């Protein structure tokens, strides 16, 4: 046991470590949802998908002993949920927000039902890399224990940015999202593109859920997601549909979530309810500061029902 | 609309059932003997019953009842503290014939239990943690345990285990029961070494897995080496602490299986010892007190077996205090006690024994606790 205390340095360190530990589910869900929204559809059901992903990943990891198989299955379950959302929304005059809310409740309920026998067992967790070997401080070592999924997420963000701007796929996605008439005129089926985009968003949300149950906090529990999925959907709008901004927004949210416990641990004990609300206050502030009544929200897909 | 219909159907069923039961008891000579041998019991939990925590402790009590001959147990999990619990209780009474109900969550009592107790005077309601007051229905009862006795013992063991002299306590909300546990834990630890401090982190709610994990990690970063908690399910905290190489003391139920290296001991409910006595009382028609309270002496709370890493000195001191608590000769809240702002909260020479009603409205943190109640 390390006996050294790092005192106030613990606060920035905790925010840094929290940014890495807490942000991963936000990152995956928001990157996936960014793709879905770029195609002109919003999937609020990702909260349910996230919880289904967390539950199925935990179950599969427990039954097979392989956490990575759990991650894969979580992604597949997410894909099914995404396709379900897209399938229902393909029907004429169906509102994607209403379907999303229904799927959110359905996914949550189904996960609680199927996850009943999984509350007690302990499943193997995902491995992490030790990037803190250079430090003697046990606190730094712990903060730099970084999970592979986080690294994948960080790599995916610039890849998405590049793919959206420079690939044929990215172009089709943006056309469909900005004007389905134009897409149809060019011979692309908006419904098919949206199906793929929503299924992909579901896949990412499922993987994000697997991080919750298999790495941090690392167990299946019915209170596991306290709204991370729905927050991530909001983060996409906050990030102005830009993958790199999704990354920064997720990190900001993760770090701000760590603020409450970290401040209490160094003895700042007054007003912890306020510190616990820090992520939300921060979001409101940034949204207010960056809002404008003159210009259209930059990057907003034209077909998206919430911005139309 | 449909709700009204449902209730009237249920009342109809009930009047039929009561009539039939009354007929059976009054007209048949063996009716009463038969009724005395069998009992339908309902258990209602606010969360999953295998949560390694609050609900599991009650479910273990239910398991003890299932072993009794002639006792039928019905359980329902994840019942919110809303009108839902009223519906659950009514269906247990009307459809399962429950005569004894354990609504185990704090928020079930007022108004739901009180309302149904008036409506069904022949059903006994045993509510955990409630505050039965004079004038409330006769068939409603509340029970609770002085688990701070077990927390004091955990504190002693933690006080011996810590090297950094810094303990951590992750709690949900600053309510009297929680503060009492934090204070008893700290007093126990400081009876080993007065230099020990307890850092408190409030997470804000009873089940916040991510925040609980984050709190455990920030405690580890601050050099805290023993952590305990008062949340609904200590699973995440105990697992995270084990990963960080910290010691833990458990709460509600036994979490030793989750942390073979770090689980020192823990404060557990002993409902499996208490509940069979309630069943026996109901079957025998004995009057149960409206406020059932007790600690180690009454076998309402217990401690987890010591982990292998607990040293001889710790065992000796904890066992000695435990023997006094079981004999009823030890007082935890004995003046002079100062709060962590320097005010004297219990004057020298004043002993607040377990049954002292002043303890049930505790609003301070004792000297040595780093934290604040607001």
How do you describe this structure in short?
The complex is a heterodimer of chains A (308) and B (374). With 308 residues, chain A is mainly α.
- Global structural class of chain A: mainly alpha
Secondary-structure element string of chain B: HHEHEHEHEEHEHEHEHEEHEEHEEEEE
Strand order of the largest sheet of chain B: 12-10-9-8-6-7-17
The percentage of residues in β strands of chain A lies in under 5%
CATH topology of chain A: ABC transporter involved in vitamin B12 uptake, BtuC
Share of helical residues of chain A: 55-70%
Quantity of strands of chain A, as a count: 2
Helix content of chain B: 40-55%
Account of the 3D structure:
Chain A: It is found in: Cell membrane. Chain A: The chain crosses the membrane at residues 6-32, 44-63, 69-90, 97-115, 143-164, 191-217, 223-239, 246-266, 272-289. Chain A: It holds the Pfam family BPD_transp_2. The complex is a heterodimer of chains A (308) and B (374). Chain A has helices at 10-38, 46-64, 67-90, 96-114, 138-143, 148-166, 168-178, 180-185, 190-214, 228-238, 243-265, 272-276, 278-290, and strands at residues 128-130, 145-147. Chain A has 308 residues and is mainly α. Chain A has a single domain (7-291), classed as ABC transporter involved in vitamin B12 uptake, BtuC (Orthogonal Bundle). A two-stranded antiparallel ribbon of chain A has the order 1-2. Chain A is globular and about 60 Å long. The model of chain A has no long low-confidence stretch (mean pLDDT 88). By secondary structure, chain B is of the alpha/beta class. Chain B folds into 2 domains: 39-145, Rossmann fold (3-Layer(aba) Sandwich), CATH 3.40.50.2300; 147-269 and 300-370, Rossmann fold (3-Layer(aba) Sandwich), CATH 3.40.50. Chain B has 11 helices and 17 strands. Chain B has a 7-stranded mixed β-sheet with strand order 12-10-9-8-6-7-17, with helices on both faces. Chain B has a 6-stranded parallel β-sheet with strand order 2-1-3-4-5-11, with helices on both faces. The relative contact order of chain B is 0.12. Chains A and B meet through helix 1, helix 5, helix 11 and helix 12 of A and strand 7, helix 8 and helix 9 of B.
């Amino acid at each position: 046991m390390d006996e050294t205390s790092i005192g106030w340095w613990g606060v920035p360190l905790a925010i840094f470590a929290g940014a890495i530990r807490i942000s991963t589910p936000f990152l995956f869900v928001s990157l996936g949802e960014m793709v879905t929204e770029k195609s002109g559809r919003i999937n609020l059901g990702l909260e349910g998908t996230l919880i289904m992903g967390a539950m199925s990943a935990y179950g599969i990891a427990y039954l097979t002993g392989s956490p990575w198989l759990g991650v894969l299955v979580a992604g597949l379950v997410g894909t099914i949920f995404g396709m379900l959302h897209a399938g229902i929304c393909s029907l004429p005059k169906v509102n994607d927000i209403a379907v999303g809310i229904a799927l959110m409740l359905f996914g949550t309920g189904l996960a609680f039902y199927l996850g009943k026998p999984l509350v007690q067992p302990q499943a193997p967790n995902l491995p992490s890399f030790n990037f803190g070997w250079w430090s003697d401080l046990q606190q730094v070592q712990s903060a730099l224990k970084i999970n592979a999924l986080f690294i994948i997420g960080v790599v995916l963000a610039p890849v998405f940015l590049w793919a959206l701007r420079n690939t044929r796929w990215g172009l089709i996605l943006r056309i469909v999202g900005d004007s389905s008439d134009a897409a149809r005129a060019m011979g692309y089926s908006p419904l098919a593109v949206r199906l793929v985009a929503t299924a992909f968003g579901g896949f990412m949300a499922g993987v994000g859920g697997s991080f919750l149950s298999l790495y941090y906090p690392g167990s299946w529990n019915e209170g596991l997601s306290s709204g991370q999925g729905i927050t991530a959907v909001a983060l996409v709008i906050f990030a102005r549909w830009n993958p790199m901004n999704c990354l920064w927004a997720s990190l900001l949210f993760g770090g701000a979530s760590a603020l409450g416990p970290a401040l209490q641990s160094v003895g700042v004990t007054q007003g912890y309810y306020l510190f616990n609300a820090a992520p939300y206050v921060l979001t409101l502030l940034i949204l207010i500061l960056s809002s404008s009544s003159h210009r259209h929200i930059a990057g907003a897909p034209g077909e998206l029902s919430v911005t139309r | 609309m449909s709700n009204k219909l449902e209730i009237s159907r249920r009342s109809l069923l009930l009047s039929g059932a009561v009539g039939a039961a009354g007929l059976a008891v009054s007209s048949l000579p063996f009716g009463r003997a038969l009724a005395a041998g069998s009992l339908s019991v309902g258990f209602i939990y606010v969360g999953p019953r295998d949560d390694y925590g609050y609900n599991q402790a009650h479910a273990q009590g239910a398991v003890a009842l299932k072993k009794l001959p002639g006792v039928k147990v019905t359980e329902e999990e994840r019942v919110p503290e809303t009108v839902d619990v009223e519906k659950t209780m009514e269906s247990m009474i009307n459809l399962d014939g429950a005569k004894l109900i354990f609504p185990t969550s704090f928020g079930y009592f007022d108004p739901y239990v009180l309302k149904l107790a008036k409506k069904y005077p022949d059903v006994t309601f045993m509510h955990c943690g409630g505050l039965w007051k004079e004038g409330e229905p006769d068939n409603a009862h509340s029970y609770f345990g002085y688990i701070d006795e077990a927390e004091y013992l955990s504190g002693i063991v933690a006080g011996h285990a810590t090297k950094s002299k810094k303990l951590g306590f992750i709690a949900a909300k600053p309510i009297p029961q929680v503060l009492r546990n934090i204070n008893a834990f700290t007093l126990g630890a400081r009876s080993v070494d007065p230099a020990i401090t307890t850092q408190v982190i409030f997470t804000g709610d009873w089940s916040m897995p991510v925040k609980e994990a984050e709190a455990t990690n920030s405690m580890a970063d601050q050099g805290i080496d023993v952590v305990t908690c008062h949340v609904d399910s200590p699973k995440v905290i105990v697992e995270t602490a084990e990963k960080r190489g910290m010691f833990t003391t458990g709460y509600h139920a036994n979490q030793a299986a989750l942390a073979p290296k770090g689980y020192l001991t823990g404060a557990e409910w002993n409902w499996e010892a208490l509940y069979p006595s309630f069943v026996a009382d109901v079957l025998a028609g004995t009057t149960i007190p409206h406020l059932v309270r007790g600690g180690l002496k009454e076998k309402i709370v217990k401690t987890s077996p010591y982990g292998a890493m607990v040293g001889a000195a710790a065992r000796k001191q904890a066992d000695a205090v435990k023997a006094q608590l079981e004999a009823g000769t030890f007082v935890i809240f004995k003046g002079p006690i100062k709060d962590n702002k320097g005010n004297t909260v219990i004057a020298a020479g004043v002993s607040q024994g377990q049954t002292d009603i002043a303890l049930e409205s505790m609003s301070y943190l004792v000297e040595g606790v780093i934290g604040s109640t607001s």
